[in-house]
Amino acid sequence: MESGLKPMDAEQLRECGHKMVDFIADYYKTIETIPVLSQVEPGYLHKLLPDSAPTQPESFQSVLDDVKAKILPGVTHWQSPNYFAYYPSNSSIAGFLGEMLSAGVNIVGFSWITSPAATELEMIVLDWLGKMLKLPEDFLSSGQGGGVIQGTASEAVLVVLLAARDKVLGRVGKNSLEKLVVYASDQTHSALQKACQIAGIHPQNFRVLKADSSTNYALSPDLLSETISHDVDMGWVPFFLCATVGTTSSTAIDPLLPLGKIAKKNGIWFHVDAAYAGSACICPEYRHYLDGVEEADSFNMNAHKWLLTNFDCSALWVKDRNALIQSLSTNPEFLKNKASQANMVVDYKDWQIPLGRRFRSLKLWMVLRLYGLENLQCYIKNHIDLAKYFEGLVAGDSRFEVVSPRIFSLVCFRLLPPDDNEDVGNKLNHDLLDAVNSTGRAFISHTVLSGKYILRFAIGAPLTEERHVAAAWKILQDEASALIGVP
């Protein structure tokens, strides 16, 4: 029997680790030449891999060869400079090194005692990031609040929804669950709907308020106020409002200050989701989009989207940590220890859904240290400048139109339909999307706004330069010409 790799051996780790780093570095060196959207058919991998695991160990090189020949063709390359779909999910050298270190020490940091540095670094680094965003001091660990790293914005909204639910039930009675009402615009991420399903909020009590082009798809405070007043008159219990800074469809920005005042007046937990656009708010010229966050009970942004921190790293801040703890805490005998029992420390297991948690603060700490605030600001602003450039290209072609105002690095646009026929226009833009993505040389995604099928061009991959944007626009123009004829 071959011995193969040992479970852990420093010298084997050194040898294989060097090979893996070389493999990944070569991947990034050639990523521009690889089709950005995987071109495989469903079930392709079942035909290439055996139907059971090997009995004897195989060589590390043979595994790497299979990754190159069989796995990478089935990967959609989010770090490609030709990736313009959804929103970015940034990788970086600093983020990768932090992830590597986290994997290397491989702690499980559910309570302070399981690795004190993991808890304390998370508190420190989220205070750093909170100060970069100029969040109110109530959100920092020095007060009653603090920050915690969740896996995704979906987890973040779920834990604060649970905290808000239990807080209001403590006030109005445990049997009032069926009366609780949640509010958001129809542009809010579907993660809130899933959170409501998990939290037991009745589907008919999830108020999805229509937002349209008259407000650039932001939630109207007047509509919210009217809806809440009606619900109160009908005997419902409003308890949770989610506002968005940078919606998924169009980067719409809900007006935080008036929404927050309405929430406060009605005793409603106010959560702000800035998953994508929060990163831009480290730049002074974009910070005003968070004005009103002082009214919020919780705030979330994804460092893994646009702040060079490898997935997953979703930063959540709350003003009242006890609301989370009272909702999510458990204290079984086998987890009891002197520091926790004396209430001297934070146990992050009580701020999240799972017990176990990784040392995610390491990569965020390394990103902030190895790049620094000024470089991160320049990184964000460069992508926004590239989006302005693309917006200008679209505006210069009379066959296309920019559909909603560009605020950050997303441009929403479409190919204009002949004779203003919207049904034809929707099919035309759907076909254009498929044609562009089928080339493998660019990847874009879509949304629907006011019944119109819209193309989204989101700039944010670490390697994207102006030449990639120009090349993508040329593909769009060429494919449009093939669909409707040369202008």
From TrEMBL:
Q: Which residues carry this modification: N6-(pyridoxal phosphate)lysine?
A: K305
Source superkingdom: Eukaryota
Q: Which SUPFAM superfamilies match?
A: PLP-dependent transferases
Keywords on record: Decarboxylase, Lyase, Pyridoxal phosphate
Q: Which cofactor does it need?
A: pyridoxal 5'-phosphate
Task: Name a single GO biological process.
Answer: carboxylic acid metabolic process
| GO CC terms | cytoplasm
A Pfam short name: Pyridoxal_deC
For this chain, the family text in UniProt reads: Belongs to the group II decarboxylase family.
Protein name listed in UniProt: Tyrosine decarboxylase
Annotated organism of origin: Erythroxylum novogranatense
